[in-house]
Amino acid sequence: MLKKFVKKAAFTAGFTLVELLVVIALLAAIALIVLAAINPIEQSNRAHDTRFAADSGQLISALERYYAARNQYPWVNSVISGAQTTANVDAAYPFISSHNAGIGICGPTCSEDGLLITNNELKQEFRNRDFVRDGAAGSSDTTKYVLIGKGAGSAASVYACWVPLSNSIRQKACAESDVYTISVGSPNRTAVAPSTCAAGTWNNTWYVCLPQ
After folding, report:
1. pLDDT tens for residues 131-181?
2. Does some domain include residue 68?
3. Most CB atoms closer than 10 Å: which of 38, 57, 123, 143?
4. What pLDDT score was predicted for residue 2?
5. Would you state the pLDDT for residue 34?
6. What's the domain range around 65?
7. What is the pLDDT, as a whole number, of residue 137?
């Protein structure tokens, strides 16, 4: 009698196959909800955009400090090999990858310090930023670049622009009309209409810029 009771208790204390399947299904549903909330790809893209924004801000500040101290930018009349140059500070500076020697992060090659680093406007470690390395490597992926450009005139701002990856940054920039089409080699930024960037897939020639 005791053996029968023990066997019955052991059997009734366990889970049936149906109950196990229900528990597994619930756990899977919870996992999907958590992943959707966390969205690791979006988090990674947002971290990328935050890093590019911070580095772009540092670069713009360094260029403005260099200008304030010398009344010119690193690219003006530069004699550094490979540098994109202008004849004077008022001339427009066509957008170009920030690894170019004219910007002042890199020297003739990116194994050498540029003028912003040798003049203590940026730390040497800035030369190892991924957008500098990828630019020097000639990547065809526009999302890997930070472009620097300036309009004509002494009052024109210097801009640092990059292609955002995160949906949240894209949507915010689109809603605030801060999205631009940029072509390397041109000093112009063409605003993208909010209705255009909100309507479809993000175009990798659409940039956000600092200063806004």
Report:
1. 999 999 999 999 999 999 999 998 899 999 999 999 999 999 999 999 999
2. yes
3. 143
4. 43
5. 57
6. 41-210
7. 92
The backbone region for 186, taken as left when phi is positive above 0, alpha when psi lies in -120 to 50, beta otherwise, is beta
Tokens (6 digits) for 203: 């175009």
Per the structure, the count of domains in the chain is: 1
The strands making up 206-210's β-sheet, listed across from edge to edge, are 93-97, 147-150, 158-162, 206-210, 180-182, 189-191
CA atoms within 13 A on the CB side of 139: 16
- 144 Cβ contact partners less than 8 Å away, ≥ 6 residues apart: 130, 131, 134, 135
Q: How far is CA 105 from the centre of its chain?
A: 17
Is there a domain that residue 28 lies in? no
pTM above 0.90, yes or no: no
What is the rounded CA–CA span in Å between residue 112 and residue 120? 14
Q: Please, what is the angle between helix 167-175 and helix 40-70, to 10°?
A: 60
pLDDT of residue 43: 92
Of 12, 60, 45, the closest CA to residue 161 belongs to 60
What pLDDT does residue 28 have?
A: 65
| DSSP three-state, residue 186 | coil
Dihedral, CA of residue 134, residue 189, residue 168 and residue 138, to nearest 10: -10
Q: Which residues share a beta bridge with 150?
A: 93, 158
Instruction: Give residue-wise pLDDT tens across range 54-88.
Output: 999 999 999 999 999 999 999 999 999 999 999 99
